[in-house]
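Tutorial handout. Part one gives the primary structure; part two gives the three-dimensional structure as tokens.
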Amino acid sequence: MARRRQIYEGKAKILYEGPEPGTLIQYFKDDATAFNAQKKGTISGKGVLNNRISEHIFTLLGQIGVPTHFIRRLNMREQLIRQVEIIPIEVVVRNVAAGTLSKRLGIEEGTQLPRTIVEYYYKDDALGDPLISEEHIACFGWASQDEMHDITDMAIRVNDFMCGLFAGIGIRLVDFKLEFGRIWDNDYARTILADEISPDGCRLWDMETNEKLDKDRFRRDLGGEVEAYQEVARRLGLLPEDGENSVLDLESHRKRRGR
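Part two.
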């Protein structure tokens, strides 16, 4: 079998050349990073869980008319996606004070915000993904005014949908990160949702206990990362209630079966 050509490797995913022009294969890794990759580790089975969770959410978003890069899931760790030109802006939607917002403004973590906040960060690891304003985006041409309108509208729409989705399974959507890309049709560019939506890029708290069900368990050395990701997948109906029967790592599964 011909070796696939790797296009890009990030902290949590690898992109390979797709089977057809304009497509890529997105591979989800078990690698975990925090604080701009200053802290590194592995969460066994994370890639499989994030693949399933992101597939599920992107599929639902597509059904309500949000354009995304997702085409279909190929296997346990891979998705077929549309190739896009990534807009170099991370969009963070905040419903509850947590993380850097709490530290930056001195607001107690867990405080419900009076209104949803949409923040923008410049995608540059060397600079630590700094917080930017729409003035910066316009000044340096990172996105056009029309693109920013589309991005902000989609971010709010995704937030409204996901708040309801997670509330229905007893989870509070505290905040989350989105990325967007351009698809070109001759000289016309269309903005669509890209990357992933998973516990890696969302803060998800149990509504009754405030237990963290996301990557903060890794960031803050709380332990139980795999169990937290599994719990999110279970509540979304993607894993059986008895998680012992789920296959999260094919190699380990084969070893257990003596193959």
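Part three, for discussion. The chain has a mean pLDDT of 92. The first strand starts at residue 6 and ends at 9.
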